[in-house]
């Protein structure tokens, strides 16, 4: 479940303020920014921090209580048997991934407004890679050292570990150290194409046009039977990113008929993709899922982000949510393989529910330590290095 994910810093290199105000000085073609979008700093959208935490915990609960393909993690039986009531919730909590993608579309659009391509590239590298590198190395070490009665160690080779450090293991054909990294490849493809718009400069019209082109590419790509186009257009997950971007335009410029229509269109595309999305989770949960429940939860995710975009959740101002939001990325990266091994290793001493709560609490503490001791210092060093590299590039002679 990045996951995830990790992608919610508003300014280049900043991880502490994922929902600060957009740059009101950015050039606008189209509707003028909302009256509240005056020079200065808007209130932080703490609601988005809370949604990030809910999304991360949703993915975590699916892997710990909904997924039924790893029956040994509790030692005495599968999650369906040892935590039946929580299992009924957990089989649907994977929809936290879709909430992540909605938030990502919203905040990536927000963080790029008025920024140069180099700022966008720097912000993504600084935000994504430090915790990810630690996650790859830590997960590989735990999987190779700890005893577990499932899975295989043969796939975790030095070559695989090194390949995973690129975050490009899927396109280069490498195995993944942890399967949850798949969401990062989904996000990465979004960034690559959105960077083209950033290069021209973000404006209302350009973002609207980008959303429209992407939506229709996602619709028609499977019909032309061209794998590269389908891989780029991402018909399954494109509606969520598009919906998030449209809601950001509502946040910045106020809603209008076109934006409402685009948001409704993205929701219609998303619900149409739900049976495709459900298939993998039905296999992992080892049971049939309800399309109705999935769409209701998906709609709730849309409504939550929409309420934040319209300012209806500005009353949420609990400071601790900022810290909680910062923990979601390392929590997502570390939770699956390491969490399963922790559950299995401790099952002899704790009954299932206390065991589940203990492991979640422990991972939250570890995520906080990773954020403070790894993510923040390494991000500062990376930002400094990238800034100096871009400066040297600009100052280098043409010949």
Describe the structure in your own words.
The protein has about 400 residues and is mostly helical. It has one domain. It has helices at about 45-65, 80, 85-90, 95-110, 115-145, 160-165, 180-200, 205-225, 225-235, 240-255, 255-285, 290-310, 320-345, 350-395. Helix 1 packs antiparallel against helix 4 (about 95-110). The longest helix has about 45 residues, at about 350-395. The protein is globular, with a radius of gyration of 21 Å.
Number of self-contained structural domains: 1
Encode the helix/strand succession as letters. Answer: HHHHHHHHHHHHHH
If you compute it from the alpha carbons, what radius of gyration comes out, rounded to the nearest whole angstrom?
Answer: 21 Å
- Counting copies of identical and different chains, the oligomeric state is single chain
Class inferred from helices and paired strands:
mainly alpha
Estimated helix fraction = 55-70%
Q: Uncertain segments of ≥5 residues (pLDDT<50)?
A: 1-28, 35-40
Largest sheet: none
Strand residue content: under 5%
């Amino acid at each position: 479940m990045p996951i995830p994910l990790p992608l919610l810093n508003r300014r280049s290199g900043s991880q502490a303020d994922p929902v600060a105000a957009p740059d009101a000085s950015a050039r606008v073609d189209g509707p003028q920014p909302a009256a509240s979008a005056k020079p200065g700093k808007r209130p932080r959208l703490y609601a988005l921090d809370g949604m990030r935490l809910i999304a991360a915990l949703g993915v975590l609960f699916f892997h710990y209580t909904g997924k039924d393909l790893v029956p040994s993690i509790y030692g005495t039986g599968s999650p369906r048997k040892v935590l039946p009531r929580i299992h009924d919730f957990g089989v649907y909590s994977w929809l936290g991934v879709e909430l992540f993608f909605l938030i990502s579309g919203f905040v990536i659009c927000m963080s790029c407004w008025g920024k140069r391509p180099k700022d966008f590239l720097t912000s993504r590298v600084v935000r994504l890679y430090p915790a990810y590198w630690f996650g790859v190395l830590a997960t590989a070490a735990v999987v190779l050292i700890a005893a577990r009665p499932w899975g295989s160690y043969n796939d975790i080779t030095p070559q695989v570990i090194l390949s995973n450090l690129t975050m490009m293991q899927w396109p280069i054909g490498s195995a993944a150290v942890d399967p949850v990294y798949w969401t990062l490849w989904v996000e990465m493809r979004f960034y690559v194409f959105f960077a083209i718009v950033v290069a021209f400069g973000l404006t209302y019209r350009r973002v609207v046009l980008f959303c429209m082109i992407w939506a229709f590419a996602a619709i028609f790509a499977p019909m032309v039977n061209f794998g590269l186009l389908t891989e780029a257009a991402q018909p399954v997950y494109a509606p969520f990113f598009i919906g998030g971007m449209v809601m950001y335009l509502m946040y910045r410029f106020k809603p209008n008929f076109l934006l409402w229509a685009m948001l409704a269109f993205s929701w219609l595309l998303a619900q149409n993709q739900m049976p495709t999305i459900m298939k993998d989770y039905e296999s992992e949960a080892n049971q049939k899922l309800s399309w109705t429940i999935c769409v209701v939860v998906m709609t709730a995710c849309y409504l939550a982000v929409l309420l934040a975009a319209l300012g209806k959740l500005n009353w949420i101002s609990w400071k601790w949510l900022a810290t909680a939001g910062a923990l979601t990325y390392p929590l997502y990266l570390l939770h699956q393989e390491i969490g399963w091994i922790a559950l299995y290793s401790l099952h002899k001493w704790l009954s299932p529910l206390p065991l589940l709560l203990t492991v979640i609490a422990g991972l939250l503490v570890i995520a906080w330590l990773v954020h403070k001791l790894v993510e923040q210092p390494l991000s500062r060093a990376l930002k400094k290095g990238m800034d100096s590299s871009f400066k040297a590039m600009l100052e280098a002679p043409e010949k």
